[in-house]
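Quick one: structure tokens for this chain, please?
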Amino acid sequence: TRTLQLWGIPTDYADHVEVATDPVIQSGSQGKFNMSRTFTSTKDTLYGGEKAVIVCAVSARYDCYFAEVGRTLMIDASDEQKQNYEHLRKLQARVLEALQPGKTCAEVWKVAQDYIQAEAPDLSEHLNPSLGCGMGLELAEEKYTLSAACEAVIREGMIFNLRVIFENLREHSPGTKKMARHYALLLGDTVQVSAS
């Protein structure tokens, strides 16, 4: 409790926080991931075998304001899966740099597209068409979707749910023509736009 007081967080903060949506957990156990904006958990049993990929996301509301975080968990990941995740991580960093006041959502999307085309062109077709959207009093402010078609202008202080996703990936089995399971990679954070 003392630590919370030092950080300026009310000691009764638990009274102000609530779960915003059900947690999302998917493992593609049936060979499918649903990575749409409104994705939900499936009723499928989680797959936790070799080269398993599990994506999860949780959201909360604090004093009426939303936040969400999403991660990918890999079990016995292949070198290809690790390399693809590293590209995802670097792409998120690039998008964070581009998320500046005065830019349009489409301009931020273009930075992501150009980066993937230059660094990992084979992943460009797997990049989700949305990098997330604005959030605040609503979990998703679709007017500020980080996509190729959105010309809305980003302003300082805005909050975004930045969700960088590669989807419909397939792991190749070395030495065979057999393709392994489908998988998706997700890295999502709640971020605030600043001038610097």
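Residues 79-98 form the longest helix (20 residues).
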